[in-house]
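Case study 2.
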Amino acid sequence: MLLKDIMTKDVLTLSPNDSLEKEAELFVEHGISGAPVIDAFNNVIGMLTEGDLVRQQKPLTKPLFLMLFDGAIPVNLKKIQNEVEEMGATTVAQLMTQDVVSLHEYDPVSEAADYMIEKNINRVPVINDEGQLLGIVTRHDIVRATYLEHHSGADAVESDE
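Prediction:
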Protein backbone atom coordinates (compact mmCIF):
# COMPACT_ATOMS: atom_id res chain seq x y z
CA MET A 1 0.00 0.00 0.00
CA LEU A 2 1.27 3.46 -0.90
CA LEU A 3 0.98 6.77 0.95
CA LYS A 4 -1.19 8.22 -1.81
CA ASP A 5 -3.76 5.53 -0.95
CA ILE A 6 -4.14 6.46 2.71
CA MET A 7 -3.14 10.13 3.02
CA THR A 8 -5.55 12.85 4.03
CA LYS A 9 -5.79 15.10 0.98
CA ASP A 10 -7.78 17.98 2.43
CA VAL A 11 -5.01 19.33 4.66
CA LEU A 12 -5.27 22.39 6.85
CA THR A 13 -2.06 24.30 6.10
CA LEU A 14 -0.44 27.20 7.86
CA SER A 15 1.41 30.27 6.67
CA PRO A 16 4.68 31.27 8.35
CA ASN A 17 3.29 34.75 9.08
CA ASP A 18 0.10 33.54 10.79
CA SER A 19 -0.27 34.31 14.47
CA LEU A 20 0.16 31.48 16.96
CA GLU A 21 -3.10 32.49 18.63
CA LYS A 22 -5.00 32.05 15.34
CA GLU A 23 -3.41 28.66 14.70
CA ALA A 24 -4.11 27.38 18.21
CA GLU A 25 -7.74 28.31 17.64
CA LEU A 26 -7.74 26.40 14.32
CA PHE A 27 -6.25 23.31 15.99
CA VAL A 28 -9.07 23.35 18.55
CA GLU A 29 -11.82 24.06 16.01
CA HIS A 30 -10.68 21.33 13.61
CA GLY A 31 -9.64 18.77 16.23
CA ILE A 32 -6.10 18.41 14.88
CA SER A 33 -2.78 18.33 16.69
CA GLY A 34 -0.48 19.68 13.99
CA ALA A 35 -0.26 21.03 10.46
CA PRO A 36 2.34 21.67 7.79
CA VAL A 37 3.56 25.18 7.12
CA ILE A 38 3.82 25.97 3.41
CA ASP A 39 5.29 28.75 1.29
CA ALA A 40 3.63 30.54 -1.63
CA PHE A 41 4.54 27.63 -3.96
CA ASN A 42 2.88 24.97 -1.74
CA ASN A 43 6.28 23.64 -0.59
CA VAL A 44 6.53 22.38 2.98
CA ILE A 45 8.82 24.67 4.98
CA GLY A 46 7.91 23.58 8.49
CA MET A 47 5.49 21.89 10.85
CA LEU A 48 3.63 23.35 13.82
CA THR A 49 2.20 21.02 16.44
CA GLU A 50 0.38 21.19 19.74
CA GLY A 51 3.69 20.12 21.27
CA ASP A 52 5.29 23.32 20.00
CA LEU A 53 2.48 25.40 21.51
CA VAL A 54 2.67 23.54 24.82
CA ARG A 55 6.48 23.83 24.93
CA GLN A 56 6.08 27.60 24.58
CA GLN A 57 4.21 27.63 27.92
CA LYS A 58 6.93 25.72 29.79
CA PRO A 59 8.83 27.66 32.43
CA LEU A 60 12.32 28.80 31.55
CA THR A 61 15.08 26.38 32.54
CA LYS A 62 17.14 27.76 35.40
CA PRO A 63 20.61 28.37 34.02
CA LEU A 64 23.61 26.54 35.42
CA PHE A 65 26.85 28.46 35.70
CA LEU A 66 30.44 27.35 35.53
CA MET A 67 32.71 29.39 37.77
CA LEU A 68 35.96 30.17 36.00
CA PHE A 69 38.55 32.80 36.92
CA ASP A 70 36.19 34.64 39.25
CA GLY A 71 33.53 34.81 36.54
CA ALA A 72 30.32 32.95 35.89
CA ILE A 73 29.84 31.40 32.48
CA PRO A 74 26.39 30.02 31.68
CA VAL A 75 26.37 26.34 30.77
CA ASN A 76 24.23 25.55 27.72
CA LEU A 77 23.61 29.18 26.83
CA LYS A 78 22.16 28.12 23.45
CA LYS A 79 19.38 26.11 25.14
CA ILE A 80 18.42 29.05 27.33
CA GLN A 81 18.49 31.41 24.33
CA ASN A 82 16.21 29.04 22.35
CA GLU A 83 13.75 28.80 25.24
CA VAL A 84 13.57 32.59 25.56
CA GLU A 85 12.95 32.91 21.81
CA GLU A 86 10.19 30.27 21.96
CA MET A 87 8.50 31.99 24.90
CA GLY A 88 8.37 35.26 22.98
CA ALA A 89 7.24 33.76 19.65
CA THR A 90 4.09 35.27 18.14
CA THR A 91 4.14 33.85 14.60
CA VAL A 92 4.20 30.35 13.17
CA ALA A 93 7.65 30.94 11.63
CA GLN A 94 9.15 31.70 15.04
CA LEU A 95 7.95 28.45 16.64
CA MET A 96 7.59 25.86 13.86
CA THR A 97 9.93 22.94 13.41
CA GLN A 98 11.93 23.70 10.29
CA ASP A 99 13.74 20.45 9.57
CA VAL A 100 10.70 18.52 8.36
CA VAL A 101 11.15 15.43 6.23
CA SER A 102 8.40 14.82 3.70
CA LEU A 103 7.73 11.52 1.99
CA HIS A 104 6.69 10.96 -1.62
CA GLU A 105 3.16 9.94 -2.57
CA TYR A 106 4.50 6.66 -4.04
CA ASP A 107 6.46 5.69 -0.91
CA PRO A 108 5.14 2.62 0.90
CA VAL A 109 3.12 3.04 4.09
CA SER A 110 5.77 1.02 5.91
CA GLU A 111 8.31 3.79 5.26
CA ALA A 112 6.07 6.36 6.94
CA ALA A 113 5.46 4.02 9.87
CA ASP A 114 9.18 3.40 10.28
CA TYR A 115 9.96 7.12 10.12
CA MET A 116 7.24 8.01 12.64
CA ILE A 117 8.52 5.44 15.12
CA GLU A 118 12.18 6.35 14.60
CA LYS A 119 11.61 10.12 15.00
CA ASN A 120 8.72 9.84 17.49
CA ILE A 121 6.43 12.01 15.37
CA ASN A 122 2.72 11.74 14.61
CA ARG A 123 2.42 13.07 11.06
CA VAL A 124 4.37 13.24 7.81
CA PRO A 125 3.66 15.55 4.86
CA VAL A 126 3.25 13.79 1.52
CA ILE A 127 4.65 15.51 -1.58
CA ASN A 128 4.76 15.05 -5.36
CA ASP A 129 7.77 15.04 -7.71
CA GLU A 130 7.91 18.86 -7.62
CA GLY A 131 8.05 18.87 -3.81
CA GLN A 132 4.56 20.33 -3.42
CA LEU A 133 2.27 19.26 -0.62
CA LEU A 134 -0.39 16.73 -1.67
CA GLY A 135 -1.53 15.48 1.71
CA ILE A 136 -0.54 14.30 5.14
CA VAL A 137 -0.29 10.88 6.74
CA THR A 138 -0.84 10.48 10.46
CA ARG A 139 -0.44 7.51 12.76
CA HIS A 140 -4.23 7.29 12.76
CA ASP A 141 -4.25 6.98 8.96
CA ILE A 142 -1.82 4.06 9.16
CA VAL A 143 -3.85 2.29 11.85
CA ARG A 144 -7.07 2.83 9.89
CA ALA A 145 -5.51 1.55 6.65
CA THR A 146 -4.10 -1.51 8.37
CA TYR A 147 -7.46 -2.27 9.98
CA LEU A 148 -9.36 -1.83 6.70
CA GLU A 149 -6.83 -3.88 4.76
CA HIS A 150 -7.00 -6.66 7.32
CA HIS A 151 -10.79 -6.71 7.41
CA SER A 152 -11.27 -6.46 3.66
CA GLY A 153 -8.85 -9.39 3.29
CA ALA A 154 -10.74 -11.38 5.92
CA ASP A 155 -14.03 -10.71 4.11
CA ALA A 156 -12.55 -12.00 0.86
CA VAL A 157 -11.36 -15.20 2.58
CA GLU A 158 -14.77 -15.75 4.22
CA SER A 159 -16.59 -15.30 0.91
CA ASP A 160 -14.38 -17.96 -0.72
CA GLU A 161 -15.54 -20.66 1.69
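The beta strands are 34-38, 44-49, 64-68, 71-75, 103-104, 123-127, 133-138.
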